[in-house]
Amino acid sequence: MDRFRMIFQYFQSNSESVMNGICGLLALASVKMYTCFDFSCPCLPRYNMAYGLGIMFVPPIALFLCGLILNRQSLVMLEEWRRPQGCRKKDLAVIRYMCSSIMQRAMIAPVIWIIVTLLDGKCLICAFSSSVDPEKFVGFANTSLVQVQQLLAKVPCKDDELMRNNTSRKAVSRYLRCWSQALGWSILLILIIAAFLACWLRPCFNQATLLQARHWSNYIDIEQKIFEETCCEHSRLFAHKCILHFFESMRREMKLHSFSLPREGEGAEGEENLLRDITDKDQVNKLLKMWYYEKPPLNVNQCTLYKFSQHTDV
Amino acid sequence: MDKFRMIFQFLQSNQESFMNGICGIMALASAQMYSAFDFNCPCLPHYNLAYGLGILLVPPFILFLLGFVLNNNVSMLAEEWRRPQGQREKDPAVLRYMFCSMAQRAMIAPAVWVSVTLLDGKCITCAFCTSVPVETLGNTSHPGLSQGEMKRVLARIPCKEIYNGQELIANEVAVRYLRCISQALGWCFILLMTTLAFLVRSLRPCFTQAAFLKSRYWSHYIDIERKLFDETCAEHARSFAKVCIQQFFEGMSTDLASAHCHPPRKAPADVGEAAEKLLGITDQGTMNTALKSWHRCKPPLHLHPPALPSGNGWGGGQANLLPQICCRTLCSCHFTQIPP
Q: ipTM value of the model?
């Protein structure tokens, strides 16, 4: 009993911390990926915008999807959403709670990528260098339209032969970088304020519902893990019995020392309880199908347990 | 029993994390291999494409096969696929589940190689430098070159030291252009892979959850059954060997005693355990004969019915437990024939 309790506590505390850990790792991975990535702006009129905005928005989408994939709870939530109702009603509040917690965790790495990109500035300089007003900058003021587009497109490339000693290039670059960093810091500030308000105002609304939703979402998660554990345990015992019968059918008197007679009496009861007379393939399939189509009611009175165990003895 | 249960729990939980660990190590290894690899574009018109695409596509294929080789469930899948039906039907859904889970893990390292290659840009630059649009990027006022000559010049773009087409098209412009295309392809590939993975993972609970639970249960079962069978056979082999050797020594002792016209020495009831274990072989000559006989003429794998009183020899209970074990009956299970 104590051992089971310790295992439960471990799963309970561990599920949240595992998810937070994965979330943190993904955030660090996104920063590392950005620093390792060799940003090279094409410095061509139409390609700049596509490249710059692409680098700013495509990796966050990939990181968001990664965050959803790596989070085990998203599978649990989907299963709970799509299961047939059976004997157990579905609580939409629980599903919504799980969905929102999954989304919040998955959004962290993409937001970090976007903020790091904006604070660094290269993406915005690459994307919008052709869109600045050339009249504001001395070096680009009195050139033809086509010429100015070409020149402005080359601003992000410091080593280009046309741009090497051009002071106006530095001016444009600084101007765009200033905008980029301002945008980055503003987004960061807005997000932090939003998180702060959400934390503080949440207890004012529906605290009881929230507690219930959180409890039942933890419950569903733990139930899933324990079902898998129990299936493993069951398949182990099933294999054990199967092989035992196989050897016994070969020769009746053979008994290996770990299955010797004196111990079998004590062991049999424990095994009986765990196997519940489910000893062939059709019975196991029926059990698994029943688990999916008709989950048992959330009621663990003694008589309900007994009824359920009888129900599975087919 | 408890000890078995703990070991199996450890293996079971560990199998998945073990496979995930191998998968992660291979992904890191593929990224490291790429950075250690010394990419050397040949800078010749037709060779560039072959080299670039070869480096892009051949190592992922090798990594994919390696992913299968390192997965020790492959033999389990092959066994289950090829076994005769016998009394147990074969379930193609279980085979498909096992194959899919192995293939998914094996795909990760190749995907990492392709992504890193595309994001780095050297392969695409090497492969497609002869296809750069000179009209839009290059110097239009340059005197026209023949097709072949132009291709030869463009093929040298990745090799900055020998590039001689600076008037035709600037090297940096061409490299930037190709690299931009390569990185765009790389990010699109990453997005495509993550979208596919997401769809595969999230559509399953919506459509085939019951079938999935069934396949997963039976594939774990097959794995555990195989391990347990191996364990049981090992235990059996140990007991078999014990009794076989015990009977050999006793036979030896009886033979020697009858050769010397002595009655076989029966251990008197009050003699200690050590004397019992000597089994009547108490001098150097007898021992040497026993050892020579063991080498020259090993006993048949056929244990006699228990003529020994219980309590004599080692683990007296052992002999009683294996009375009628015949090597041929044993061999009608899955393992090879042992000649008598």
A: 0.76
